[in-house]
Structures are given as C-alpha cells and as structure tokens.
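One such given next:

>
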Amino acid sequence: MLTFVKISQMVLVSIGSLLVNPLFWIVIGITYYMYGKGSDIEERMLGYRIPLWEKIKNSILIGLLGGVIGSSLSVFLGITIEQYTSLESSNFNSGILYIWIIALLLSLINVRYLCFSYAGGIVALTNLIFGFPKINPIGIIALVGILHLIESLLIWVDGYSNAVPVFLKRKDGNAVGGYIMNRIWPLPMLILFAAIVAGGVGESISMPDWWPIIRQPGLDINMENFMYILQPIPVILGYGDVAITKTPAKRCKDSAWRLAVYSVILIALAAIASKIHLFAYAAAVFAPVGHELLIIYGQKEEEDGKALFEAPERGVKVLFCHKGFPGVKMNLEPGDTIVAINNVRIDKEEDLSDFLKNYPTYIWLDIVNSYGEKKTLEYKNYERGISSLGALIVPRSPELYLEINKTSKLVKHLKGLWRDKNKKA
C-alpha cells in the first residue's frame, strides 16, 4: 500500500508540472477554438452565448480529475506504449505521434474518427502484421481502453453540461426538438516508458512482484539498470452527441454506461493478450470495430426511436427553460407538455402567449410530464405580473432547424467533384 501512496504522490507532482507545459496550453487553445465554433448555434437558439471562459474553466477542472484517475490506473496496470529503449535515446513519444497522425488523417473522412480507438487499432494491427512501427501494440490497446473508460466517467458527470436546444430534421423528413451535446476535456495524462538506464535516475520505487498487470511481451523486468519512466503528455477527450429520444442527462448516462462496458472489455482483452499473444489481434480489431458499432447503435437509436421533444396533438411541448424565468422557478422541465393554463386550454404556442399578454399575477399550469404523469405547477408575482414563462416550445413546423449530417465537408466535396466529372463524361 505504501508503494502506491508514493506513486500517487509522484503522479500528482508530474501532473502539476504538465500544467505549466506549453503543449498543455496549446491543447487548451484548441479547446477554446472548438468551443467557439458552437457559439453561433447558442446565440440563434438561446439568444445569447454561453461564456467561453465558463466552459473552459469547467472542462479544465473536470479534465484534471480525469487525468489523475487515468494516470493512476495506467501506472497501476503498468501500461507502456513504446518498446523499451535506452534513456539517452529520448525516443518516448513516437507511439503517440503515430496515433495522432493517423487520427488526424481519419478526421478528414469524418471528424468523429479523430479518436484513439480507430487510430490506435490501426497502429497496433500494423505492428502485429508488419512489425512497424516499433511500439507495444498491447500497451496501445490498453491505453485506448483507459482513455475511453475515463471518457465514460466524464460523460456521466459532465457530458450534458451546456447542452444546447435545437430543432433537428430527421432522415424521415420530420423536424423535432432535441439537444446538442458538445464537451471537450483537456487531460494532463501520464504514461509509462520502459528504459534501460546507466545508473540511477532520480527517485525510484521498487514495485511488487506481481506488477505490471499488463506486461509488455518479451520484456524482462528483472534485467539490471532497467526502469520505468513517468512521461507526461497532454490529451484531449471529447463528446459530441444529440439527444432526441431522451433528455440530455439520460442520453449521457446511457452513452457513458455503454462506453464503460466497451472500455472494460478492451482492457481485459489487452490483459489476456499480454499472456496469450493471439488475443492481441482480437484486441486490435475490437478497438475500432467495437467503437464503431457503439456509435452506429447510438445514432440509430436517436434517429429511429420515438422523439421525446415532438409537437403533441394536444398541448405544447417544452424543450428548454431559461434560467431566472418563471418556468424554472415553478419547476417546469424539458419534456413537459402544457395542456392548460388557469383552466384555459392550450393547443398551440400562440394560445400561451395570448394568455400571458394580460400579465396575470397568479398562474397554474396543468402539465403531463415525459413519464405520462399529470401535475399542476403554480407561480405568482403580484408586483409585476407574469408576461412570459421563459420556455422554448417545440413548434409544429419550425422555420429554423439543423439536419443531422454525419459526412465530413471533405467527403462531400469529393463526392461533388465525382458527380461533376461523371456529368462531363
């Protein structure tokens, strides 16, 4: 136990040093840019932009927690991603570099392929089949599993923060209400590197005989002058999704649970592969294929399932409530259907706004929530009256909506060139 307490201290110190590393601040700059791209949708739907500093602050704090947990788990399992080398070579980042290059190339096809599950699987398979690049394929797969396990935790606790209400056009042509979730977390992450050193280097800790759990194949940990080195690297985790059939919180919980199961299976396959080499191929294939099936299932669920935020035949459906307005104060929630106000039947949004034009001082709403339960909500303001609930209602025919598009701009451009070429021919 004392050993792992000392390791935890080293992890925290190393992560602290990464926070002042210029590369980590470049990652934060990328986070700022990516959050800024979504500000236009917020302004169009909400009438204001959520402050970027607020998003980034929360992302850094949550990402710091994820980095500590992920680094500790990585060290506990003894994961290395490089084939061992001499300390003097300082060639510690080639494995990560290969993954980043492939991930960036894949993102040109679709931005969601900017994920280590695809790039990591490709790099691992390339090493297993051709022996290049010189990395530890089992360690790569285990790292992918840990990063997705941490991502599942972050999605669970923070994935639905600042979710933006939108109107979406489904593939059947119907426009429904929904939410776009877009969260990015910069992680200060630590990865182990196996190195042969000439003499001691700084503080060293003797590990138990059973460690590492996921052992690098062909690595003799008892060889003289052999050490594991903690190397800090900045990592970005992101979550982009839409919630149509569920509330954002419920959608995130379901997505996080499935991703966690995928991650545990991947880590387990890596652990078995460290003992039985044949399983390394299964793990490398499962990394991208399992993740892709997970994405396809989630997309199909939202596209084909019954929409939660669809205009009802009777009453009006609430999509979003602005903070500080009566709707929030009287506990009106997304997914609630308002069927009457002060015993006056409500069939469309204009009925609600016409009633509130008279500035009533006391109102009660008859609603049916997303579970089919009937409730009555009350609110009063004798001083100023009530002119608005501050609620965004799902219209029957929205004038502004987004189309669910899974194809990248590059692919669409190439398809356009191909069509033009065929027309000319």
Notes: Confidence is low (pLDDT under 50) at residues 86-90, 407-415. Residues 278-304 form the longest helix (27 residues).
